[in-house]
Structure formats: C-alpha cells, structure tokens
Amino acid sequence: MATRTQNRTSNRSNSSSTSDRSSSSGGASNQNRSAFSWGEGAAPVIAAALGGAMIGFAANYGRKALKQGMEAAIGDWDQILAAEHDEALALFDKMLATDETQTFKRKMLFMKLCHALDKHAHEEEMVVYPALREANEAGDADHLEGEHGYIKTFIYDLNEMGPDSPTWLEKVREFRDLVSRHAHMEEEQGFPRFKRAMSEEQNAHVTSLVNRDGFWMA
Ligand SMILES: [Fe+2]
Ligand SMILES: [Fe+2]
C-alpha cells in the first residue's frame, strides 16, 4: 500500500510530466505565465466582483445618508443628540420586556443598542465635548466623558454574562438608569448652558460636525 508521502510524490511527478507534455507540445504562451497571472477568462469575474463591491458601497452609503439625513432633519446638534437618547432608552425598554427564553431577541436588541450608543458617544466625544472644553466647560466635558467609560463597562459586563443569565435584566435596568441620568444631565444642564453661550454660526458649525460624524458612524 502506498503511503501518503508516496502518493503526494507520485502526484507531483504526474503533474510535472503533464506540464512537460503541454510545454513540449508548443504551449509557448504558457512559458511566460507565472502562478499569479490572470487568464483572459478572469476579466468577467473581476468585473463582476468590482461591480458587486461598488453596489455594496453605494448601498451602505445610501443607508448612512438616509439615517443621518433623517436625524439632520430633527434640527440642531442638541436636538439630534436628545433624539438619540430617546432611541437608546426605547431599546432599553424593549430589552427589559424580554424573558430568559428570548435569548436571540435579547442579543439582537443588545447589538442594536451597542451600535446606537457607539455612534452617539463618538459624536459627543469627537465634537461636542471638545467644543465644550474650548468654551471653558472642561469640568462638564470631563465628567460626561468619564460616565461614557462606565457605559462601556456595562456593555462589557453584559457581553460577559450572556443573555440567558438570571441577573441579565437586573444589569440592564442598572445600565438604563445610568444612561437615563447621563442623558438628563446633558439635556437639562450641560447642553443648554453651552448652547446659550454660542453664536448662531457656532451652533450651525457644531450641528454640521455632529451630522458629519454621525454619517460615518451610522
Ligand atoms: Fe454623553
Ligand atoms: Fe448623550
């Protein structure tokens, strides 16, 4: 019985004798073709792959434009962020309405919540909090950004415990309380004070920056 090594050796010698035959039978064009060269038949495949990638890119671009376009229609930067707070709190409420048997639903809602919070935190941390610091409101900005760290800790904890944990709902409830308190502080104190001190141009500028950041994160 031939061993696996013998079989591999014999296959190699068979294939090399086949290629010897093809080159000796006048395959001159094959002599210059490396292992990485593309045959003429590959062109339609490459074109189809590029076409698919372009369609995917356009679809994703369209989805982002639609999502952020809808948010931009809400109004100024603070109104957009307040609407995102409401969206996140509504997702928490859906999560709190589940039971231990609905693990798939819990996972999907949690994934959606993580994406929404990630986008929201990016808009605040890359635009609004730096603008707050520029306006001598570093205390507020640092406190709020510190709370974002604890929001990420809740996400970490929920990922670790899994959706079937008996303490999942309790953890989600504590998480919601933190997000609700944080959102309340932004909407009732930090953001209105900042907005009152802004010129119309500054307000429009921060709004456009939030929309641009939100577009890429959507
Ligand atoms: Fe925040
Ligand atoms: Fe916020």
What are the key terms here?
218 residues, mainly alpha, 8 helices, flat, disordered N terminus, binds fe (ii) ion
Give a written overview of the molecule.
The chain is mainly α. It has one domain (50-217). 82% of the residues lie in helices and 0% in strands. The protein contains 8 helices and no strands. Helix 6 packs antiparallel against helix 7. It is flat and about 65 Å long. The structure holds fe (ii) ion (FE2) (2 copies). The site of one fe (ii) ion (FE2) has 6 residues, from helix 4, helix 5 and helix 7.
Quick structural overview:
The chain has 218 residues and is mostly helical.
Tally of separate helices? 8
Helix and strand element order:
HHHHHHHH
Label the overall shape: flat
Strand-residue proportion: under 5%
Overall average pLDDT: 84
Number of domains: 1
- Give the biggest sheet: none
The bound ligands are:
fe (ii) ion
**Computed Rg:** 28 Å
Which ranges are low-confidence, i.e. pLDDT below 50, for 5 or more consecutive residues? 1-30
Topology:
Elements: H1 4-24, H2 28-31, H3 42-72, H4 77-96, H5 103-134, H6 138-161, H7 168-196, H8 200-217
Bound molecules: fe (ii) ion (2 copies).
